[in-house]
Amino acid sequence: TEAPAPVAAAPAAEPAAEPAAAANAGKVRFKLMSQPSGARVFYRGKERGVTPFTLEIPSGQDGSVTVELTFAMEGYQMETVVTGGTGEVVLSQKLQKRRGGAGGSRHVEVASVSADETAEEVEPVATPGGMSAPVMLAPTASPATELPVAAAVGGATAAAADAAPAKGSATGLALPVLPTAAVASARGDVLPYNEDMPRPEMVDQGKDIIYTREAMAAKSSGVMIVRCTITQQGRVEKCRTIKSVAHMERAVLDALTSRTYKPIVYKGYPVNVDYTFSMRLVAPRR
Q1: Region (Disordered) spans which residues (predicted)?
Q2: How far apart are CA 69 and CA 284, in angstroms?
Q3: Whole-number Å distance between alpha carbons of 61 and 273
Q4: DSSP-assigned states of every residue in 106-152
């Protein structure tokens, strides 16, 4: 008898082509725009691109992500937005000219965010100083204290170390004055932020600002303003909430106090500075 002919193995089926969407699996696409265009966008302290452009961020296990984005452009105030979502998020941010510039305005147009191609309209909110620019609130003057010049500045002359003399008021009473940068640095005084100081430069972002479950359920959104001390070592301490967003205060405070900045150098001396952080929180859409 003849041996049975060998049975040819069936050819292996070619793997099906992956859909285009699979290439973006595990990422959220942020379509970022600004008015005017050409703003630099920073995420986690690094520049990511110039508007308009698309930024892809890895998503979490639930397919969503929350991000903090800062828009910066010459002649305009920096604007910070915290938002997120799943799939594709469209974010359009209107920039405000710096105070003193031509056509400058104190009115802030808020960001509009949506998970679809059409941006969702959000009611504008007026905030002093812009969204992420320092909000110049009146500082509380502390009583002047006497300090030996040698102890304050390590032997510098009195003329160089002492604060400027107090000016008389209309009633003849002496008005309190802020110490010089040298004295403030030596004594550890806290100075209010002013336009002559450099903007804080982040070294380590620390914790991300994550929307809480309660804030997600309530769709909490709005501008949150927090005043903190940036120390001579670059730490963020003694944060006080000026304006809050429902269910988000603790998350924002924890994130801010985990950050590290370059020490703010004022007139050649590192100083402690009272700085006001202002950011817009836009509830992520799922």
Answers
A1: 98-120
A2: 14
A3: 39
A4: S--PPPEEESSSSPPP------TT-SSS---PPPPPPPP----HHHH
Q: Determine contact, residues 239/154, Cβ cutoff 8 Å.
A: no
Pick the more confident residue, 123 or 213: 213
* pTM, to two decimals: 0.62
Whose tokens are 């501008």? That residue is 223
Question: Domain 24-136+195-281 belongs to what topology?
Answer: TolA/TonB C-terminal domain (3.30.2420)
Q: Which amino acid is at 259?
A: R
* pLDDT, the chain, mean: 75
Ranges of each domain in the chain: 24-136+195-281
Other CB atoms closer than 10 Å to residue 55's CB: what's the count? 18
Q: What are phi and psi of 42, to 5 degrees?
A: -115, 140
Helix (H) / strand (E) containing 214: helix 213-218
